[in-house]
Amino acid sequence: MSGSANGLTRQQMADRIAFEFQDGWIVNLGVGIPTMCSNTDIGDRDITYHSENGVIGYGPIAPAGEEDLNLVNAGGQNVTLRPGAAVVHHADSFGIIRGGRIDVTVMGAYEVACNGDFANWKITGQKGGGIGGAMDLAACAKRVFIIMEQITRSGAPRLVAQCALPVTARRVVKLVATNYGLFEPTGDGFRLREIAPGITLDEVRATVGCKLTVPDNLPQVRLANQ
Amino acid sequence: MSGSANGLTRQQMADRIAFEFQDGWIVNLGVGIPTMCSNTDIGDRDITYHSENGVIGYGPIAPAGEEDLNLVNAGGQNVTLRPGAAVVHHADSFGIIRGGRIDVTVMGAYEVACNGDFANWKITGQKGGGIGGAMDLAACAKRVFIIMEQITRSGAPRLVAQCALPVTARRVVKLVATNYGLFEPTGDGFRLREIAPGITLDEVRATVGCKLTVPDNLPQVRLANQ
Amino acid sequence: MTQKSKQVGSFREAVQDIPDGATIAFGGFAMPGVPFNLIQALLEHGARRLTLIGNTTGGAQQPRMPDMGMLVENGQVKKVVCAFTASTRPTDVLPFTKYYESGEVDAELVPQGTLAERLRAAGAGIPAFYTPTAVGTELAEGRETRVIDGREYLLEYALPLDYAFIRATRADTFGNLQFHRSQRNFAPVMATAARVTIAEVDEDILPAGAIDPDQVHTPGIFVHRLVKVPPPPNGLWPTRRQERRR
Amino acid sequence: MTQKSKQVGSFREAVQDIPDGATIAFGGFAMPGVPFNLIQALLEHGARRLTLIGNTTGGAQQPRMPDMGMLVENGQVKKVVCAFTASTRPTDVLPFTKYYESGEVDAELVPQGTLAERLRAAGAGIPAFYTPTAVGTELAEGRETRVIDGREYLLEYALPLDYAFIRATRADTFGNLQFHRSQRNFAPVMATAARVTIAEVDEDILPAGAIDPDQVHTPGIFVHRLVKVPPPPNGLWPTRRQERRR
What we know:
- The complex is a heterotetramer, with two copies of chain A and two copies of chain C.
- Chain A contains four helices and 14 strands.
- Chain A has helices at about 10-20, 90-100, 135-140, 200-205, and strands spanning about 25-30, 50, 55-60, 80-85, 105, 110-115, 120, 145, 160, 175, 180-185, 190-195, 210, 210-215.
- In chain A, the strands form two sheets. Chain A has a ten-stranded mixed beta sheet with strand order 4-3-2-1-5-8-10-11-12-14. In chain A, strands 7-6-9-13 form a four-stranded mixed beta sheet.
- In chain A, a hairpin with a 4-residue loop joins strand 11 and strand 12 (about 190-195).
- By secondary structure, chain C is α/β, with parallel strands linked by helices.
- Chain C has one domain: Glutaconate Coenzyme A-transferase (3-Layer(aba) Sandwich), CATH 3.40.1080.10.
- Helix content of chain C is about 20%, strand content about 25%.
- Chain C is built from six helices and 14 strands.
- A seven-stranded parallel beta sheet of chain C has the order 5-4-2-1-9-12-13, with helices on both faces. In chain C, strands 6-8-7 form a three-stranded antiparallel beta sheet. In chain C, strands 3-14 form a two-stranded antiparallel sheet.
- The chains are: A alpha/beta, C alpha/beta.
- At the B-D interface, helix 2 and helix 3 of B face helix 4, helix 5 and helix 6 of D.
């Protein structure tokens, strides 16, 4: 897949979320764009990346030819380990998640509602779904951050008043990065914290499906670590 | 403590119980006389001894001077490991117990009732008690075997119609070895399976606190492996 | 004390007693830990009306390796219990989907952590437990919940197994296992949950005592049969990952 | 990514922030795994109204080493939660007993497996679970039970900790721990249940990366402070066991 035609690229969305990571955090990155957060330069902050399959402290994707075929992240990509890594089994790994040790989980979503509900496991009309670890992570991580495109392929908003799709968890999303900007659910709407370069406020307003709050001095999306 | 003045010695009681162990069994031995079962020669039957503290596959007591001070059995004695041993943590160790993997647990007791109830954790009038792993083992092992003296220090029966002391578990005891013989709870009494050398049937009858069934050809307690 | 080795000579022999109607879990998360060779043997064995448990039904990657979906396609499966019964990508249709949508096969969709914990509970003699996961979702509809210290939890039951098929890197004759990196994943809890655990093993089976007791990942008391995986092409091994074409 | 070492310079420093009223668990089963040095530091620190959790209250062996009973004798304890609050030998009276019988200290007696599982549950985000242990006994009187598949089970709740004091053989600066043999016992589950885990360590603290990730017993994310135990007589070490005189 290529980057978005409008606003931030996929890597820029991941970068913006990664800039929020604080020193010492334990971070779980979901499949897709979220995994790109581990590519972001966030200076000397020490982050421990946790994967559902029990890998604690993984590092960058393994260079081609140097993969350990028995070592993957949540997306099935062959990763490396950083010094101090540890491996546990699946029940212990989800014990870490349910036990509240994950400072932030970053996931993709189909929809995020202004009360913090979000949906990312089941499509309308589909029988079955793909939950994976999303419900455990969403219910139990200290923070849920979402990265998704601003609108669906058919142009409908993904930031909505309430989810039309079955939710993954309720009232948990704290921050959303889209290609249009950075948003916070406020309960009755979204607050636009930062806007993507090249995107107009009208474009944002037209693509949010509920109330939008915009601060007086709206900054552009921060694209470098500081 | 010395052996019993009457009938079987402590080691003989342990031996008799150990002769019941079948090839391939996983066996948990409680503190006191039961730990002596691991001294018994039961031929080439392969037994895995499990201890509550997570040691799977321990062997004899370590010779003096060769103790590993970080390796003990349930009684706190420094033991050895046999080839194929493994160590797990306490929650996993009791997962093994509750999960039904223990073929037999051998324990001491104050009293055993004819319905299979037994008591071994709290003395009359005492505040508090010593449960340890006894309730988990008694509730979950496939079989509970008891080793105890036939009578209390004051001469009262320990094989009783019902327990006067708070029970450890209900309806679980399958076999009891005392210094007087080998007994099975039958629901409404005990069946005497074998009698100790030097003990008369009258002595047994006088020291069982409920109905006693005695087979026509009562054998003596088997004292050697066969 | 004479220990008998748990090694058996072939995958076929390892699965030969599996009856119709058995409940079998497969270890594995993406490629690591999937018991490809045992699944292949089960395809050849032909047992039917199986209930299969694992993270996914498979088929999302190329090259396709033996997976739950193939057993479904082979008509051997009554029901699957998985954390994924469909892809999260709308354009990506799993091989399993058409059998599920047609009603030929039933499925129970379980959050991954709940799946792992239900297996762990079965192995640890815990018949049921409460979890915050899935509260407020479609999965909790009509189910029993309980408020504890002001938070709502869902009641979940243990998931016991007849058989666990797992893959390990190293084993001794007593069945003690070690896994390499994320090969471990579900295997240890599945082994505790199963009546019979069968492990395919990457390396030659070692004599008992060759693995440090402190470094055993799954104790041999949970493992009943071991099969050494032969080198390719006779044995199946994880490959480099390629995204499935869509 | 700059990792800071979790090693602190002294036992005193490791326990200095422990407030009155804290809930603290001590690892250990018989001698192995008991954090003698941290208990000694807590005796000197003087925090009061503590709730202490561990297998026993101590005092059953000679030579007597720092134990829960000494903190009781020192007036620092409100309540203990243990699998033994008395000896099973009528003639063997624990040091703890007179404080318990006089009502100075409260106690909760918990079967050992239930104790381990309640700690594990606290660490694993499971607020409550069912267990067959103690059904039909005095401990179950007045408590909630549930019949599942025809068997009766007791409801038990998670037991979360403020602090866990544990002892390990080996650690790296990130806090990854390895235990030797039965030194492991309760330590891994206590570490997961605690907000803050403090480990006393037998060997010199290793650089991060020195322990094989497959062989870590307790991941460093659960461990917050490490103290190297000095050689005797400055550090306290397990000794050969002698039965207590009675």
